[in-house]
Amino acid sequence: MRKLLAIVALVAVIVGCSTAVKQVYYTATGPQGSYLLVSAESPSALSKYKVLEVAKFENALPGVIEPVLVSLVQRKTVEEMSESGYFQSVVSVPAFKKAVAKAPTLVLRGKLVDIVSDKIPGQKLISGGNYIVAAVEVVDKSTGAVLVKGNVRGEVKSVAQTGDESFAEGMAKGVRKLFKKVLGKEEK
Fold it and tell me: Which residue ranges make up each domain of the chain?
């Protein structure tokens, strides 16, 4: 009986330690982003675009996703895409508006469609695993043609980083990965 208790205690310590190690790792690496590409033009067709406008994302869950998070997603995405060096200019715009552009311009538009968060009553997660999902499109500003469609997920696995800034940062990283794929580029 003592051996069984010792084995159970050892397993509990090992499992507890691995959870602690994971949380330290997730806290150190910060929020993460991923994407699911639905469709895209070829990288050569997209290479002519020099400007990216990031439109404010729509909110499919207004009673659940706060307006501050919607604004943060746009701001963090502009920052992340500016750092990428993929475009000569990256700016935020209130919404997509078809118009003649001085330089070839893409517009990123999206809709926040899902969220799992410790902050939402009934969704308290013991080990993290918070995420937000957006359906996104990249359109030509002059023609309105949809050139890229996909879903982007911003994930926060650290229990210490469950705020709106972390969700937005994860979403922005996912957008950057999506653009890296569709543009066929390496980071600058």
Answer: 1-30, 31-183
